[in-house]
Specification:
single chain; 399 residues; alpha+beta; YojJ-like (1; 3 domains; seven-stranded mixed β-sheet; 11 helices; 32% helix
């Protein structure tokens, strides 16, 4: 009993593993007579192969410890075990369980009625006093809360140094990276083999290395990231490498702002024809913007996600207009509409929520919607295809 629930929980921890009838790559987990198949846009990397083997070998143990009625907490333990194993694949000499236990302890502490935050950088060397020592908590709690201040610790969470990242050390990456914008200073200073651990005031928990995000825990849910594979999956969904790469950077920032958003990639202008408030249209052949959008259009219309020089110059402008009620519709070259209301598709089933209905309608009209919920969850709807060109609907969900 509950074999499928355990296997589905394990698969959902890896965002670029999804479920679809047709796909280029299909893998499976099995428990008893139950087989759970999942799909991927590309072949598993060596690290992901190792993770799949670990999951397969752990299924019976997880299932045996599952209560008669599985609870979110019991399923979260499956996710946490997978997250720890993923981190161990990158560096097995770090006591990851100790770091996670420390963060779990700190995230429920307050200092002057505010949640405690912390930033840690794990490096080489042997430290002195452990940060988890109860005798130092009153001193440590209000420290390393700025997004450019951190404790440098060893692999056993022992204190090495207390440091600040200077503005001159913060540099723009030449590569696409999947991290929240507020972690950019740490991405600038991390060296090969180093890791950083972050607890934000909202309770979100991140672990990253110099290449990007490795693990995230948000709303109690764990997700692991193989950054390059994940980026390639997003690019594959979009069918345009540059658009996918730019969205790869932007999605997490939208999620972190927790305002909700609906982005619709519409390269063939199929969705823009279904907009019921034409004054939201600022691009295309015959825009008819209202006064406010006409005022903004010269500044924001040319924010093209297909630009090869990336979006850094107007990134925050894009993030702000994406937060308007309604959909932000775009193609490779420009923004087509902001705050657009999409006509409900006649063949749409039953869904709750205006943003979900708009995303499903945009998908059925031929666009690729990226829905960001107010709680931070990101959902991409797309068509998955196999080598023979057969298609089926699919979705990628993560936080």
């Amino acid at each position: 009993m509950y074999e499928d629930i355990v296997m589905e929980t394990a698969i959902s921890t890896v965002p670029h593993w999804y479920s679809s009838k047709y796909a280029k790559y299909t893998y499976e987990l099995s428990m008893g007579n139950n087989v759970f198949r999942f799909q991927s846009h590309s072949q598993l990397t060596l690290k992901l192969q190792e993770l799949q083997i670990y999951i397969q070998n752990s299924l019976k143990g997880w299932h045996s410890h599952m209560p008669a009625n599985p609870t979110p907490r019991s399923l979260q333990q499956v996710e946490e075990d997978i997250a720890v194993r993923w981190l161990e694949i990158f560096d097995s000499t770090v006591d990851w369980n100790k770091f996670i236990a420390y963060i779990e302890y700190v995230r429920f502490r307050t200092y002057e009625n505010n949640r405690v935050m912390t930033n840690l950088v794990i490096g080489g060397g042997q430290g002195t006093l452990s940060l988890s020592d109860a005798d130092i908590q009153k001193v440590v709690d209000p420290l390393s809360t700025s997004m450019q201040v951190y404790f440098r610790v060893d692999k056993e969470l022992r204190f090495l140094d207390y440091q600040e990242i200077l503005w001159k050390e913060v540099r723009e990456s030449a590569e696409y990276r999947f991290i929240p914008e507020f972690l950019e200073p740490f991405a600038s200073i991390l060296q090969e083999g180093e890791f950083s651990v972050h607890l934000h005031r909202q309770g979100d928990f991140f672990i990253m290395d110099s290449r990007g995000l490795l693990v995230a825990n948000r709303k109690g849910r764990w997700h692991i990231y193989d950054t390059q594979t994940f980026k390639n999956s997003v690019c594959g969904i979009m069918g345009n490498y540059t658009v996918g790469s730019n969205l790869f950077e932007l999605m997490f920032d939208l999620s972190y702002r927790r305002h909700g958003a609906l982005l619709v990639y519409d390269p063939e202008h199929k969705v823009i024809e279904q907009v019921v408030n034409p004054k939201s249209v600022i691009g295309g052949e015959s825009p008819l913007p209202d006064a406010a959008r006409a005022m903004l259009s010269p500044v924001i219309r040319d924010i093209g996600l297909g630009r090869t020089d990336r979006l850094i110059r107007k990134k925050n402008l894009f993030l702000e207009v994406a937060g308007l009620d309604g959909a932000l519709i775009f193609d490779d070259v420009e923004l087509l509409a902001i705050g657009a209301m999409i006509k409900q598709h006649p063949n749409l089933g039953s869904y709750l929520g205006a943003r979900t209905i708009a995303a499903q309608s945009a998908f059925k009209y031929g666009g690729v919607p990226i829905k960001v919920s107010a709680d931070g969850e990101i959902q991409i709807l797309f068509e998955s295809s196999d080598d023979e060109g057969l298609l089926s609907d699919a979705e990628m969900t993560f936080m």
